[in-house]
Predict the structure.
Amino acid sequence: MKKIDKSALFLKEHLDLFRCPVCASDFKNVIGNQLICGENHTYNLSKKGTIYFLMKPSKTEYSREMLLSRQRIAKMGFWKPMLDVLYPLINKNNGVTLDAGCGEGAHSAYLKEKGLKGPVIAFDISKEGINLGAATYSSPFFVVADLAQSPFQTSKFDTILNILSPSNYDEFDRLLKENGRVIKVVPGKNYLTELRSFQTLSKQTYSNEEVKNKFMEHFKNVENYPVNYTVELTDEEISDFLKMTPLAWNIDIPKTKYEKLRRITIDMEILVGNKTIEE
Ligand SMILES: C[S@@+](CC[C@H](N)C(=O)[O-])C[C@H]1O[C@@H](n2cnc3c(N)ncnc32)[C@H](O)[C@@H]1O
Ligand SMILES: [Zn+2]
């Protein structure tokens, strides 16, 4: 089946998960490849099976080249140990999952491939990221949208995934079901420490305290799963690694220094929080 037809089917089946980002009314219908809201605002499915919901194009700092590098790094298993810890945390729910700020979607695609059940929608403000994801993976369902004006219906999501991405907790609350939860992945203080050592002194240390405190103030029953491991990179992978992370964009690291980046530390925390108190 063509991607566009597969996506039209997904939309028909899960129309209740979406709402118009302009007028917030329900979507009544998918006619052909067009989604139409109660106020007649229309959104077209692209050939790749994605939907574009932005009111105006957004300029993001992530170029296609950077996204391709990020995708190759994902493919070589850079985040796999973290995702393997995350998977059982999300799968408990077996419900509807939203990946907020999915980039090129490798994480959701991996979780889906691993057996994640239920519909998974992945969205990002970067059209390039969504296009690349939709061209590469058959699942999740990919959407271009802004967290600040999201095209999703109120109280329909069991899990919101938020991996190394910005968040909007008020919007997350609106989208989550009463017993829904957010799984947020944040860098720990030693995340990519080998790369940080090339940075100016002020950027060599990092603390996630503020982010964590904000999460704990907002959500209930917060659990914290630290994940620590190292990844060995080849020269080619080091080049991709340097392109894919904003942390390296302002520094020039010659190949003669690659030995210092041969083994990279991944230090992350997976925060899980409930919208309401779980009995
Ligand atoms: C560091 S990337 C992480 C991407 C992906 N989760 C990953 O781990 O590979 C942060 C992502 O957040 C997205 N983003 C930033 N602001 C956003 C917004 N307002 N709405 C949706 N996505 C946004 C960016 O486009 C980018 O893809
Ligand atoms: Zn509308």
About this structure: The pocket of S-adenosylmethionine (ligand 1) is lined by residues 60, 62, 70, 101-103, 107, 124-126, 129, 146-148, 163-166 (CB under 6 Å).
